[in-house]
Amino acid sequence: MEIRSQFRKTLLGAGLLTMSVMPFVSDPAVGAARQDTRYDKKLIAVLAVIEGPVMLGRGPIRVALKPPASAGTAARALRARIKTLPPDRHIYMVVRDLRVNEQPGVLYRLYLDLPPDEKPGRSNPHYAGTLNFYNATETSDAANVKNPKIFSYDITAMIRNLQAQNLLSDETTVTVIPSGTPAPDSSPSIGRIEVVEQ
Question: Does domain 21-197 have CATH number 2.30.30?
Answer without folding.
Answer: no
